[in-house]
Amino acid sequence: MNRGLLAKALRESWAATFFLAVGLALTEAMLAFALLKFQDQFSVLWSQLPFAQIMLRALLGADVSGGIGPEIFASIAWAHPVVLALLWAHAIIYCTRVPTGEVDRGTIDVLLGLPVSRWQLYRTESFLWLVSGVAVLLMGVAGNVLGNSLVTGRLRDDPFRLAIVIANLFCLYLAVGGLAWLVSALSSRRGRAMGVALAFVLGWFLLNYLAQLWSVADRLSFLSVLHYYRPLPILRDGTWPVRDMIVLLVSGAALWTAGGFVFARRDLSTL
Fold first, then answer.
1. Which one of 9, 132, 208, 212 is separated from 116 by 20 to 30 angstroms, measured CA to CA?
2. Domain count within the chain
3. Is 183 domain-assigned?
4. Are 165 and 182 in contact, with CB atoms under 8 Å apart?
């Protein structure tokens, strides 16, 4: 890794990473606290609203008709749209910095004039992306533990099962980031690249919900990355979703690699 490139990437990305990490920690703390504190009230409300159960099933990726148990409340904290939005925002913001962000700012010529290869630049930026993504997720875990402790004085979830959920969520994060890297490599305007990545993410999210209501969408649900992230079965059974994690990892790696080849071969200039 090139230290100069790492320092540059860190200097330019630390603020967004910091604020999104703090936002995720606060969101997790509030969700964990509220869902545990008012568990009985939520259980009564959801049991009386069939449509709410459909939304819960879409959100958690598992059947909830058997009753609203503690695992469901624990799962909501890791599948809530705000939590996913913060993680995806970090992936999209960071992964569209290079090259499209540099092209958009008119600094790509200076960056590519450095005595480093494009692949070295790409790997260095990607390394810091992975590190910062882990940091954001750990802040979320810290917030979740804090929210639990304010009610129970201890960690509510099984640490082993929680670790599996976080690993699955990180694979989801990598898949979204891989898409953002490829879109960035293909674009010349950062706003457009972020918009395209956001459109894909919203499409996946919508497809995941429609799959609970429409048979056609259900048959196509495998195209959504959310189809491979299901925290409720993990917290219920404690089993590793190996197939789902492999699909997300392979998808993310393939998209990231494609982005690298496009970046390495594409003619980039601010002229």
1. 132
2. 1
3. yes
4. no
